[in-house]
Amino acid sequence: MLNKTGHFTALSLYHVLRFDRLLYNHYQGLTEKEKQLINNSLKEKGITTRKTDTIEVSADYEHEYVYIFSQRNYPWHITEKNKEVFELLCKKIAVISRSANPLLLKNPYDYPNFLSIKKMYPQAKFIFIQRNPLDVISSTMKLWKSRLTEKDEFISLYSKEMNVMYQNPLLLFLYRVYYTLVFPPGVFEVLWRVKTGTDSYLKNIQYLSKDDYISVRYEDLCEKPNAVMNTILTFLGISSQRDFSGYVKPRKLKLTPEVSFLKTFIFKKMKKYFTYFGYTI
Questions:
Q1: Is residue 113, in this structure, part of any structural domain at all?
Q2: Are residues 98 and 144 in the same domain?
Q3: pTM listed for this prediction
Q4: CA angle (72 as vertex; 138, 107 as ends), nearest 5
Q5: Domain total in the chain
Q6: Region 58-66: what's the mean pLDDT?
Q7: Nearest to 110, CA basis, from 143, 69, 76, 84
Q8: What's the CA gap between 32 and 19, in Å, rounded?
Q9: 231, 216 in Cβ contact below 8 A?
Q10: Cα dist from 245 to 51, 54, 250, 271, whole Å
């Protein structure tokens, strides 16, 4: 939604898939041709959305930079180890976009990493989207079950780890046992990751200036997209007349059985976060 305002330059699927050729394609006038090749490939594979929801995908689909890291065996969040490749990515996008617009980036794995990022890049600003942990854990489990039931052709385009899994029958079997049993043990690993991230946020957000971040709830964004987006844009010093109501379709989500069974346990483990953002079970 932020990218649709025209005030940003966003990382795209094209940037991820053609990272090593971005400058060559740009200076040889091949960018649009390469994007069309990606779109043709998506069409041939029958990929129109992300499969897990109705978000349409194309070469210009706003993507996550974690896949630049994972394809090259780097940590999945910004560190000193991958800082150089991250900065190279930013510089390449700045050159080929020919725009002075700020760069809009997304990576869930950097959610608890904001203090380190702020130290590396003092001008960085952050938009945090909070969500009821029960829905986050349930959504993650549904995502795994969907990808393990049948091959997800879209993620196979850019995820090295998922391709390794799909090509290894034993590994695929183990993942299915871990995430898709009647009561999958993987739910505790997902809970641990969510709790670790939110604990870090609650512990460290006090050290980030309020001029450098805004935190909104996913539920409020769904219910009042225009109001929440205008709040975000005001924080960023940007104005837009765009109507965002068509981008969000609120829906009632049913918790997976294992999350429903564990909801009291999850609440107790993450009570501080639930209380801080006004969530209940």
A1: no
A2: no
A3: 0.93
A4: 40
A5: 2
A6: 96
A7: 76
A8: 15
A9: yes
A10: 22, 15, 10, 32
pLDDT at residue number 100:
87
Q: How far is CA 219 from CA 63, 73, 129, 132, 209, in A?
A: 22, 34, 9, 8, 25
CA triple 199-146-132, angle to 5 deg: 30
Whole-angstrom distance, CA of residue 210 vs CA of residue 235? 10
**In the predicted model, is pLDDT for residue 215 greater than 80?**
yes
Q: How many CA atoms lie less than 13 Å away from 22 in the CB half-sphere?
A: 22
Same domain, 91 and 152: no
Rg (CA), the chain: 20
Domain residues for 13? Answer: 1-107
State the residue for tokens 């050159």: 95
End-of-domain residue from the set 76, 107, 138: 107
Instruction: Please report whether residue 17 resides in a domain.
Output: yes
CA distance 190 to 86: 26
142-183 pLDDT, tens digit per residue, is 999 999 999 999 999 999 999 999 999 999 999 999 999 999
For residue 249, what pLDDT is reported? Answer: 72
Clarify whether residues 80 and 152 are in a common domain.
no
Q: What angle do CA 68, 72, 78 make, to 5 degrees?
A: 55
Secondary structure (DSSP) of 14-69: HHHHTGGGHHHHHHTT-HHHHHHHHHHHHHHTT--B-SSSS-B--TT-B--THHHH
Alpha carbon 14 to its chain centroid, in Å, reads 16
* Residues 228, 171 share a domain: yes
CA gap 163, 155 in Å, rounded: 8
Place of tokens 């079950």: 145
| Domain co-membership, 12 together with 101 | yes
pLDDT tens column, 31-60: 999 999 999 999 999 999 988 777 899 999
